[in-house]
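Q: I'm building a small set of examples for a reading group on sequence design. Run inverse folding on the following structure and report the sequence directly after it, with nothing in between.
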C-alpha cells in the first residue's frame, strides 16, 4: 500500500519539459520571482496617448476645450470597458498555457496551473503582472476513481496525503524555473502590453479631468498641485510650480497628454493675465527640461 501511495504521489507532478541548453540570463543573479512591468513606472500616475483617450468618439482630442464633465465621464467608462476586455484577453491567453485556476484576491487575480512547476501568475488592478513559484500546498487532484474537487477525491487525499501534496513549484531547479518564466512571459507579452496601456489610458483621463481645477486653485490661491508640494507664496512661485509640474511628467506619450492639458491652461489663463510667462522664462525651461517635448505656446 505504501508503494502505491508513493507511486501516485510521483505521478501527480508532470515531467518538466527540457529547458533550452542555454536559457538567456540563467547565469545572472536574477531574483526568484519575475515581474513584468508594461506600464510606465514612476512616481507620477501614467498618462495615456491622445488616440487612446479619444477612441470613444473617433475624433482628435481638443486640449483647449476639455469638454463637458458628462463627456469626460463617458470616456472614462468606455476606458474601463477596454481595461476589462484586455484583462479577459490576458486571462484567456494564460488559460491556453494551462493556468486555468482563477482566484479573485481582491486587488489582483491569481491564476495557477495544475502543474505546480509552472508557477502562478498575479494580474493586479493597476496593470502589473507578476509570476512567482507556487508554494508547497495540499490540493485535491483528478484520480482514476474521482474528479478533482469532489468529496471522494478529498477523501482519497486524506487517506493518502502524498497523492495531493504539490511540491514541484518549490523543488524545481533555478535554471529550469527561469526557462519556465521566459517561455510563459514571452507567450503573453502582447496581452500584458495592451492591458498596461488600457489602464494607463483610464488613469490619464482621470488626471486630465481633475487638472483644470487644480491648476486654477494653484494660480488663484497658491494651492499645491501635489501633496508633496509646498504652497506657492507669490505669482512667481506659482509660475515656477506650473513649469515644474509640466517638466516632471513621464517622458512618454502618456506624459505628453498631460503636458498638453497644462499648455492649454497656460495659454488661456496665465498668458492672458498680468503676469504671463516671458519668452526668457520659456527658453530657460526648454534649455533645462528633462523631457523630449518642448514647451511651445505659440500656435
Amino acid at each position: 500500500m505504501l508503494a502505491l501511495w508513493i507511486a501516485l504521489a510521483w505521478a501527480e507532478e508532470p515531467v518538466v519539459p527540457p529547458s533550452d541548453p542555454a536559457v538567456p540570463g540563467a547565469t545572472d543573479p536574477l531574483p526568484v520571482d519575475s515581474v513584468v512591468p508594461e506600464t510606465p513606472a514612476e512616481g507620477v500616475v501614467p498618462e495615456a496617448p491622445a488616440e487612446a483617450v479619444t477612441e470613444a468618439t473617433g475624433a482628435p482630442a481638443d486640449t483647449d476645450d476639455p469638454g463637458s464633465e458628462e463627456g469626460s465621464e463617458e470616456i472614462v467608462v468606455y476606458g474601463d470597458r477596454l481595461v476589462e476586455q484586455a484583462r479577459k484577453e490576458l486571462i484567456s491567453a494564460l488559460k491556453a498555457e494551462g493556468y486555468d485556476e482563477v482566484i479573485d484576491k481582491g486587488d489582483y487575480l491569481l491564476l495557477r496551473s495544475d502543474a505546480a512547476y509552472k508557477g502562478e501568475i498575479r494580474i493586479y488592478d493597476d496593470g502589473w503582472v507578476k509570476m512567482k513559484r507556487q508554494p508547497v500546498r495540499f490540493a485535491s487532484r483528478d484520480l482514476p476513481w474521482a474528479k478533482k474537487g469532489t468529496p471522494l477525491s478529498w477523501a482519497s487525499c486524506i487517506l493518502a496525503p502524498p497523492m495531493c501534496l504539490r511540491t514541484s513549484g518549490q523543488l524545481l531547479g533555478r535554471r529550469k524555473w527561469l526557462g519556465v518564466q521566459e517561455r510563459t512571459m514571452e507567450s503573453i507579452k502582447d496581452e500584458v502590453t495592451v492591458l498596461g496601456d488600457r489602464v494607463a489610458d483610464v488613469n490619464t483621463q482621470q488626471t486630465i479631468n481633475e487638472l483644470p481645477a487644480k491648476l486654477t486653485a494653484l494660480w488663484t490661491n497658491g494651492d499645491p498641485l501635489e501633496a508633496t508640494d509646498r504652497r506657492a507664496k507669490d505669482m512667481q512661485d506659482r509660475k515656477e510650480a506650473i513649469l515644474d509640474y509640466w517638466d516632471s511628467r513621464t517622458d512618454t506619450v502618456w506624459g505628453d497628454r498631460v503636458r498638453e492639458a497644462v499648455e492649454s491652461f497656460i495659454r488661456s489663463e496665465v498668458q492672458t493675465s498680468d503676469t504671463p510667462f516671458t519668452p526668457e522664462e520659456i527658453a530657460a525651461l526648454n534649455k533645462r527640461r528633462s523631457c523630449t517635448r518642448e514647451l511651445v505656446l505659440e500656435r
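The mean pLDDT is 77.
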